[in-house]
Known about the structure:
Layout: H1 9-23, H2 26-30, H3 35-45, E1 48-52, H4 71-85, E2 89-92, H5 103-118, E3 124-126, H6 138-145, E4 152-156, E5 159-163, H7 189-200, E6 206-209, H8 225-235, E7 238-243, E8 250-254, E9 257-261, E10 275-281, E11 287-293, E12 298-300
Parallel strand pairs: 1-2, 2-3, 5-6, 6-7, 7-9
Antiparallel strand pairs: 1-10, 4-5, 8-9, 10-11, 11-12
Helix pairs in contact: 1-3, 5-6, 7-8
The structure holds zinc ion (ZN).
Amino acid sequence: MTDSHSPAAPTTERLGRRALLRNGTLLLGAATLPVAAASAADDTARLRVGLVTDLHYADKPAAGTRHYRETRGKLAEAAAEFERQGITCLVELGDLIDAAEEVETEQRYLQTINREFSAICDDRHYVLGNHCVDTLMKEEFLGSVGQAKPYYSFDRQGFHFVVLDSCFRADGQPYGRKNFQWTDANVPQEELEWLAADLAGTDNQTIVFAHQRLDVSNNHGVKNNADVRKILEASGNVLAVFQGHSHQNDLKEIHGIHYCTLVAMVEGSGEENNGYATMEIQQDGTIQLKGFRKQADREFV
Length: 301
Ligand SMILES: [Zn+2]
């Protein structure tokens, strides 16, 4: 046990993190704090990302192993854990909602789950999943969650993060309004060029977030993922890719990049079938994934 586990610590941690986010001067302040408080501040200065995937929220009865309505309770548990740990940012790796026949119904599903998701953390990132844009158009989904772009990058605490969008048909058309087969996932040429230029523009160690998988050539894989991998490998800075879509734990290493697939929150009934994680990156590039419920723990360099 360390002091950071004492009952008083979480409040200090939360205050510390907010201070850091506001003005970036937490480390200066920490130097004058007593030892116990300083160690709590060190802990919160670390980059910690909350990760969830494949929530498939919908107000409809379960189908097979997918318990759509239970997602809200499972997300509430994840939210409490993220609050306890103090996260820098929150990423959902796609399929936040499940399909409805009507656009209005699907928008209602999205508003319901996003109200709860967005209460967790201000610094949020949404990867588009095929189910997000089954009935909705991309602009409608992104407009509802308040995200400007389907793919983009951002920096936090000296690390670079890339959000990819593989919801395009082989002919380059973006998914939307039931115009696609879910197995026809592609990263179009324009996005590949953007990715190469984006990675060339940073020296920071980089993490990539995707929905469809970049490491397999079966139905769950992006069809041209070899082209994507070539760009990631050429940058020399990419540590790992976190992805969802196939709903099961998996971890592969291809040419020095780790491809970590996370479990789906929607799978299975009851809290024991939940799955979510926090991810930390050390300055030396070591990545620790702390998994909860069905989500496996991972550590790789
Ligand atoms: Zn899914």
